[in-house]
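Chapter summary example.
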Amino acid sequence: MNIQKRLDQIYRKPDLTIQYDRPIVFFSDLHMGDGGPADDFAKNSDLFQKTLNHYVENNFLVVLVGDILELWQFNRKEIDRAYPWIYSSFNLEGIQLIGNHDRELGHPESLLITGEDNVLVIHGHQGDWINDSWWKLGRFFTRWVWKPLEYLGINDPTSASKSLKRHDLVRRGLSDWANTRGIFLVTGHIHRQEREGSYLNIGSGISSGKIECIEYDGIFEEKVWT
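The structure predicted for these 226 residues follows.
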């Protein structure tokens, strides 16, 4: 199924629907691992805790838009040992959606925010076959093939965050859907904070020394915390 049809289905029957009634902040792609050298989030752990606390204290609804845990490379016990604060920090009045890398958690896939404008929120892997319908195959190759090769400087060509070709393909499909239909679409997945008309990408929390997010209070504002 192509991206356009997949998104049409999701928009018609979202997993969650809420009414916009207070400021919202969107985070995506933290990829929390085992705290070791292969854990891309480890260097930003303290910064993310401070950023998250800021939004909670200021009564923002926190929406975590998938790939919060890196379950394609690590298991849940390793992540829990590395970040014991995860339970207390995420035990807030917020919403968690699944991404392709933490699909096993069983969170909702999609969120529709209604108000003056409708906003559809998904991770962004939907319709990207190796990360969507065939996600178990993608997990296998990431864990056992591409992870070892990345130590040699060879990037995963199926990853929308590491392959420029995949990035452009995914972004074009998401952006075309949002702008053709005039519906705001907020996603993560490609690890690049971008905006193109009605399409917005949150960015990620794994670039060294910065946390990217998007605030929504009637208008969208891209934020970078350092």
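To summarize the output: The CA atoms of residues 4 and 177 lie 6 Å apart.
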